[in-house]
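Technical annex, item 7. During the second reporting period the consortium partners agreed on a shared format for inverse folding records so that results from different sites could be compared directly. Each record opens with the tokenized structure and is followed by the designed sequence. A conforming record, contributed by the partner at site C, is shown below for reference.
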């Protein structure tokens, strides 16, 4: 028999709770972002009925269809894919939090569009800690420069950092990347740059979310464990 989304959600929440309690955190300090890319709106509806409040999408066009179809629900929308500046307008219209800002060009365009929309756009900075050329994200070395460029932008608010570690079969191997992101956050926080809050750490997916929670994740982005494999 197939496991329902409600049952999977229950088990994921239990695992998040366990990981949080193991390291002295409150389970409420971790938000589960349900990653719905490639899945039809009906499945997202089922997840919302089961109690999902935060939805993560990777592609603007796909998100627009779902956003319109689910507009009656008070959901938080997270953009977690690679964002091109020419799509910034749509991203600002839909998303409460954009996790993947990694350049001043994109930040400036988001600021411009947010100003037009009369919105303060909340963003995270995506950091590439592994140096893999195939991964998006600003390097650790360029992060402070980027933040110094962003902080004067009055329609943007930086809320924290996001990272994607390399893929490992063993979640233990991802731990150094998660702890590095936490340390980076703490270091930046101590600089007290105006307009730069360092409260969120978006890290951890299906394979390693418990490890990420143990290292301080406040947002875990989970697709496969909730919805099964993607087509
Ligand atoms: C697809 C995706 C996820 C979810 O990955 P799963 O392994 O299916 O949980 C999380 N974060 C990002 C940025 C993604 O693109």
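Designed sequence (site C submission):
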């Amino acid at each position: 028999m197939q496991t329902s989304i409600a049952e999977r959600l229950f088990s994921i929440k239990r695992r998040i709770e366990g990981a949080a309690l193991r390291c002295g955190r409150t389970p409420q300090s971790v938000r589960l972002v349900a990653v719905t890319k490639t899945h039809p709106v009906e499945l997202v509806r089922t997840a919302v009925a089961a109690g999902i409040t935060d939805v993560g999408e990777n592609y603007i066009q796909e998100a627009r269809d779902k956003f319109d179809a689910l507009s009656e629900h008070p959901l938080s929308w997270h953009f977690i894919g690679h964002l091109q500046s020419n799509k910034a307008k749509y991203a600002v219209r839909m998303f409460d939090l954009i996790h993947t800002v990694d350049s001043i060009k994109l930040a400036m365009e988001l600021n411009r569009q947010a100003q037009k929309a009369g919105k303060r756009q909340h963003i995270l900075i995506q950091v590439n800690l592994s140096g893999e050329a195939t991964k998006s994200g600003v390097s650790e070395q360029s992060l402070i420069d980027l933040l110094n460029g962003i902080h004067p932008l009055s329609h943007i608010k930086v809320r924290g950092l996001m990272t994607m570690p390399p893929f490992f079969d063993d979640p233990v191997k991802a731990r150094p990347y998660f702890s590095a992101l936490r340390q980076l956050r703490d270091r930046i926080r101590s600089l007290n740059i105006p307009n730069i809050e360092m409260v969120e750490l978006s890290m951890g997916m299906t394979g390693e979310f418990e490890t990420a929670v143990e290292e301080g994740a406040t947002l875990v982005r989970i697709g496969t464990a909730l919805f099964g494999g993607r087509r």
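DSSP finds nine helices and nine strands in the chain. Strands lie at 31-35, 54-57, 76-79, 97-101, 121-128, 138-139, 156-163, 196-202, 219-222. All partners now use this format for quarterly exchanges.
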